[in-house]
Protein: Ferredoxin
Amino acid sequence: MALMITDECINCDVCEPECPNHAISMGEEYYQIDPGKCTECVGHFDEPQCVMLCPVACIPVNPAHVESKETLMQKYLRLTEAA
Structure:
């Protein structure tokens, strides 16, 4: 399940540097998450770091990108092999 950032984002810049997959970047109006890179921190941490740090709780699961923990781990392995 890739995460997404909603329009409630206040652009506080807390999430972007904490993403181990570099999946978070500034969009036109607020930060966005690349679902191709988001593993919900599987392989890195026990919990998504962006969700833990977000002061306005604007990072829910992206319903368009529902993935199992196994799929997220496969994505993590693919991303770390490419690095």
